Amino acid sequence: MARTICIAFAIIGLCIGCGPKEVEATSSTSSTAPSTAAGYADVQAVFTKSCVGCHGDTNPKAGISLTNHEALMKGTAVTAGDPANSLLIQALRGADGKKQMPMNAPPLTEDEIKKVEDWIKAGAKA
Length: 126
Ligand code: HEC
Prior knowledge:
The protein is mostly helical. It folds into two domains: 1-33; 40-121, no CATH class. It starts with a helix and ends in a 5-residue tail after the last helix. Helix 2 (40-50) packs across helix 5 (110-121). The protein contains five helices and no strands. The longest helix has 31 residues, at 2-32. The chain binds heme C (HEC). Heme C binds next to helix 2 and helix 4.
């Protein structure tokens, strides 16, 4: 009888011992999981909705066309890998003394700006 109790305690002890470690292991893997960057199609959808009215192919404002990846990358609005130094992001946030875009309209949502930022951070690929 005493032996059974002993074994029971040993099993409980093992379970308590391994419990927290398991939790730690799962939380550390999830925090280092790579975030999936937005593809350019998602970014273009934002520009098409909010920007191309003024930044189209014909006489775009500030010389910046936002109609497609090629047109955008021809200019200097994007510094691939470096959103904070990209004119595009500075304009979306109204940072660094830039006029906030879209002009004469409410700013984009944080989600939309993050999408563009993540895309630039991931290399601004087509
Ligand atoms: C209603 C017209 C209009 C819309 C819509 C608009 N822009 Fe602009 N944008 C302008 C004008 C005008 C300028 C030039 C501002 C200046 O130099 O004073 C400009 C300038 C810029 C610049 C250069 C900023 C600078 O300081 O050099 C960027 C980048 C830009 N726009 C991005 C965008 C993006 C991204 C969107 C969509 C989210 C957008 N714009 C929507 C009119 C617009």
